[in-house]
Amino acid sequence: MIEFEDHPRGLVRLIYASRATGGAVSSDMATAIVAKSIQNNRVSDISGLLVIGADRFLQVLEGPAGEVEQTFARVASDTRHSDMTVIARRAGGTRMFRNWNMACRHLGLGDAGALKAVGLAFFAPESLDEERALTLLKSFGEFHLQ
Ligand SMILES: Cc1cc2nc3c(=O)[nH]c(=O)nc-3n(C[C@H](O)[C@H](O)[C@H](O)COP(=O)(O)O)c2cc1C
């Protein structure tokens, strides 16, 4: 069990979508990103979830504002992806993804229903607003816990 502080006044939840520069993301690349993220995010008290579908990423980062912004700046300059769209950057509240420093869901054919539930015929996370992005992230988070 990971023990996170809630930092009630200083918590930030940042959600963004991006596109992999090298085409469809391989499981090796996903594993490398997640391993590094877990290692760094543990030190930075960041929790979150990364969803990968074909060449798209949707990620939520939550934690102390300064740490989230520092991590996001590093992630944003990573040449493995581009076309970043910030969907939400919200201060306050409590953590919604407190189970992991970074969990990852690599989408498969069985995920069409969850996408359809938020109005997507395919994984195009850049078109989501905050509410639908959170709905999708939470539904994949629940899968992950099973
Ligand atoms: C889609 C994507 C998500 C990433 N998420 C994180 C993250 O949550 N935390 C993190 O530290 N690095 C993340 N990275 C990796 C960073 O871009 C960067 O390579 C890494 O933080 C460098 O860490 P280092 O300075 O310890 O080597 C992500 C990279 C990509 C492409």
Can you walk through the features of this model?
This protein has a five-stranded mixed beta sheet, with helices on both faces. 32% of the residues are buried. The chain has helices at 27-44, 65-76, 112-117, 130-145; strands at 11-20, 47-53, 56-64, 81-91, 103-106. The chain is globular, with a radius of gyration of 14 Å. The protein has one domain (11-145): Alpha-Beta Plaits (2-Layer Sandwich). It starts with 10 loop residues before the first strand and ends with a helix. A hairpin with a 2-residue loop joins strand 2 (47-53) and strand 3. It has four helices and five strands, in the order βαββαββαα. The protein is α+β, with helices and mostly antiparallel strands. It binds flavin mononucleotide. Flavin mononucleotide binds at residues 33, 36-37, 40-41, 50, 57, 59, 61, 71, 74-75, 78, 80-81, 102.
